[in-house]
Amino acid sequence: MYDIKGYYDAETVSEATALLADNPNLKIIAGGTDMLIKMHGGQLEDVELLSLRKIKSLEKISIADNGTIVIGAMATFSMIFHNPILKDAAPILTEAAISMGGPQIRNIATIGGNVCNGATSADSASSLFALNAQLKLESKAGERVVPIREFYLGPGKVALNPGEILTEILIAPEDYKGFGGHYIKFAMREAMDIATLGVAVLCKVESVTFNEVRIGLGVAGPTPLRCLEAEEYAKGKEISSETLAEIGKLAVKSTKARTSWRASKEYREHLVEELTQRALKTAVVSAGGAEVV
Amino acid sequence: MFKRIAFTVNGKAYNFEVDVRESLLDVLRSHLGFTGAKQGCGVGECGACSVLIDGVPTDTCIYLAVWADGKDIRTIEGVAEKNGELSDVQKAFVDEGAVQCGFCTPGLILTTTALKESGKDYTREELKRELSGHLCRCTGYQNILKAAEKSLEGHVCTCVDSPHYKGE
After folding, report:
1. Exposure winner among A35, A210, B23, B141, fewest CB in 10 A?
2. B140: alpha, beta or left, given left = phi > 0 and alpha = psi -120 to 50?
3. What is the Cα–Cα distance from A278 to A281, expressed in whole angstroms?
4. C-alpha pair distances (Å), B158 with each of B37, B126, B149, B154
5. Is A145 part of the contact surface with chain B (CB cutoff 8 Å)?
């Protein structure tokens, strides 16, 4: 049995924020695939849970009139993978979604939970970083929108204030239109594994030069991160293997990889340098550029 | 803390109070006697506890019993015909020798049943991916994959990639 002291169901967002305002000790549970495992392992004890599972409005994935993609925080990884809007507009996110866990986990784990957990290894994170995702946080007092890069504060730490719930993940049209992208998850097994490194890249090309490049990395530091120096360098450069090699080298500079039992710091840095280039090679082609040989 | 929930298991309706601390696996096995769902890893990695919830394969060890309210659940006990005749998926697992100790079998048969009932076509790679949430420590997976392919006869595409999935 799980160490649960109390359990509350909310059926609407306003009901959830009201319950949370009354009792700030409530722990929010979404898919439960991380929370219940923490309880199983004794890292979380005597908890009072607020479940968002009955709030069906938070499962919606849609595209607003202004082109902004709106992903409900309770959308599961299976929903994201099978969603035609995302498949078309943000394939780096659907590719990341299908790389996560196994089928039964994807059927229940939610993208909102994945983000709020604050893990650098969150499979959705590197893609959401590359897509400049914005997070809508709601509380009884109102709502605010935070860029995902400001949301991750440290391992397991996110900028969610007491009383706040992540309700929507937003991707603006200028952050996905016209980009080609590619996602690579590097892990020891193809299923049920935590990433050794997650690489999500987006690029825009103009005949033979890079117009814009974005590189999002997971497990390359205490939080997911962007390789801004490499991105800045790439702007306007000719697309060639030399440019890619330099981007790979510069990408490593933005990382703060560490040694864990999964991989050493040196190995992770090698992966960053190599996989950034490989991901960009594929992304260039999907952005309409010529294959880099 | 207790909560009253109503749900069906293999078509039969249940309505009773569950302890909020219990997993659906606890309720299925200990209260209702559906011991076909197994407790393996207990953390959602092995798939021995998988059942179909509204037709979707789900690990019940990390699924709170209160979440089953209003759901339609199918366990391995509800797969064969009423007269005891095995389903096509079960027959395929027997024919291909895909069962050894049997601990992973209920979950694998339920997931394969869901794939068959989806009516969709799958590539071999997609089939492997869809079965990847079940660990088997006996057979080495080849016979399981053969049994799944036999179950989905006519729906397994042999092309290298399909429009919705490209193997790395």
Report:
1. B141
2. left
3. 5
4. 32, 11, 11, 10
5. no
List the 176-235 stretch of A: residues with Cβ below 8 A of B.
184, 190-192
Distance of CA A281 to the CA centre of its chain: 22
Cβ within 8 Å, pair B57-A6: no
Residues A190-208 have a mean pLDDT of 95
Q: List, for chain B, all residue ranges whose pLDDT scores fall below the cut of 50.
A: 162-168
DSSP annotation of B85 reads P
CB atoms inside a 10 Å sphere around CB B120: 13
Of 3.40.50.720, 3.30.465.10, 1.10.238.10, 1.20.190.20, which CATH number belongs to A56-175?
3.30.465.10
Q: Which residues contact A129 (CB under 8 A, 6 or more apart)?
A: A148, A149, A200, A216, A217, A224, A225, A226
CATH number of A4-51: 3.30.43.10
Q: What's the Cα-to-Cα distance from A59 to each of A54, A56, A104, A271, B118, rounded to whole Å?
A: 10, 6, 17, 35, 21
Q: What is the Cα–Cα distance from B1 to B95, expressed in whole angstroms?
A: 47
To the question of pTM greater than 0.80 for the whole model, the response is yes
Tens digit of each residue's pLDDT (9 = 90 or more) over A265-286: 999 999 999 999 999 999 999 9
Does B22 sit within 8 Å of A107, measured CB to CB?
no
DSSP A26: P
Quick: pLDDT tens for A31-49. 999 999 999 999 999 999 9
- The full DSSP string for A167-233 is EEEEE-GGGTTT-EEEEEEE-SSSSS---SEEEEEEEEEETTEEEEEEEEEESSSSS-EE-HHHHHH
Nearest to A104 among B3, B59, B67 (CB): B59
Token output for B157 = 């595409």
Which pLDDT belongs to residue A158? 98
pLDDT in tens, A112-131: 999 999 999 999 999 999 99
Give the range of the structural domain holding residue B43, as residue numbers without chain letter: 2-78
Task: Assess whether B95 and B70 both reside in one domain.
Answer: no
